Structure formats: C-alpha cells, structure tokens
Amino acid sequence: MSNVSVVTTAVETRLTNHLPGHLDSVLSQTLKPEAHIVSIDYARIGCGANANRAIQSVDTEFFFMVADDDIMYPDCLERLMAHSEGADFVYPWCKVTGRGAWNPNSLFNRDRLRKTPYIPGNVLHRTEKFREIGGFTEGIVMEDYDYQLKLMNADGVFRCVPEILWEYRFHGQNISDGHDPKLI
Questions:
Q1: What percentage of the chain reaches a pLDDT higher than 70?
Q2: So what's the pLDDT on residue 18?
Q3: Count of domains observed in the chain
Q4: Which end of the chain has the smaller Cβ count within 10 Å, N or C?
Q5: Exposed/middle/buried for residue 5 (C-beta within 10 Å: 0-12, 13-18, 19+)
Q6: Residue 13 sits in which domain range?
Q7: What is the CATH number of the domain that holds 137?
C-alpha cells in the first residue's frame, strides 16, 4: 500500500490543453497513489478553498498537492515517500519550462522562508499535520506560502529532496507567476 494520494486542483480554462498531460503523469508514477482526487474550481472559489475541499476526501497518511498544469516525473511519488519518514512537508526540486532565468530550487532555510516565498506549491504533505494546523487559509493570494509559515510556526518538519521530480510549466494562463521578483 502506497499510503499517499495525489490532489490536483484545476481550473476550467485548462481542462483541454493542460490537464490531460498532467493526468498522464500521475498515471505513470512508479509508486501508484491510493487515490487521485481532481477538484475543478468551476465556481472560482480560489485555490485555497478548492484544495481544502479536495483534501477532505484524503484518507492516506500523505498527499501530494499538484497543479493541473504541472507534470510529475515517473519517480516523483516514490522518491518523496522514500524521504517522508518523520517529515510533515517534503518538497522536491523542479524543472521550469516556458520561462527564462527563474530557478526556485533551493535547500530548506528557515530564516529565508520567514522573509520570502521560495518553495513552489507541489509538495508532499502529512495529512494529519495539514489538518491539525487548519489547512490552507482561504481567500488569500499565496495560500501555499501562508501554509508554509503556519507549519513552521507549529514546529512542522520540513525536508527537501534535491532532485528534479516535476516540471513547472509557464504558459500564459498560470494563476500565479511562480516567483518572487527579489529572487531573480
């Protein structure tokens, strides 16, 4: 049993041009998830609210949060789960396509995270800890960064897997631009 689910938040405008490739990448995982929950935000309630509703269905120890326009490499779940023991938040590095010099890949640094967002949102979460600290704050921008700060304040255990395990695709329809201008 893999003890991990995949949670994909999606927006209607990307259902035909981005979601199919993403779905294929989930199906190609060497470690098969127990479930793949796809939540399409038809009502435009926002990423945080959409994700929280989808995560209510998770009944595995971990879930990997991933956007509908990103591609997981085949060993993504396997490599993250191999590093999950004792961690509440496990994040891999990524390949960025469709954009110039932005590179979010960096080892975990508590002081840096307090000052600026630098960890993309495609992360393996310990489900119990996620629920314990209230999940994503709804109705705000950068709900993933807000969650990371809440987790840090709750003494959550962060772990970086410095391997490129997914692809961040810029395409002009991204909900966020994916970077902090101070980091470029």
A1: 89
A2: 79
A3: 1
A4: N
A5: buried
A6: 4-183
A7: 3.90.550.10
Which pLDDT tens digit goes with each residue over 81-136? Answer: 999 999 999 999 999 988 666 788 999 999 999 999 999 999 999 999 999 999 99
- Read out DSSP for the chain? ---EEEEEEE-GGGTTTTHHHHHHHHHT-SS--SEEEEEE-TT---HHHHHHHHHTT--SSEEEEEETT-EE-TTHHHHHHHT-TT-SEEEEEEEEESSSS--------HHHHHHS--S-S-EEEEHHHHHHTTSSPTTSS-HHHHHHHHHHHTTPPEEEEEEEEEEEE--S--SS--S-GGG-
For residues 161 and 141, what is the distance between their CA atoms, to the nearest angstrom? 26
Among the ranges given (46-55, 90-99, 122-131, 146-155), the one the predictor scored with the smallest mean pLDDT: 90-99
Q: What is the pLDDT of residue 103?
A: 84
The single-letter code of the amino acid at 63 is F
In the predicted structure, residue 156 carries a pLDDT above the cut 50: yes
- Residue predicted with more confidence, 180 or 18: 18
* Contact (CB, 8 A) for 100 and 133: no
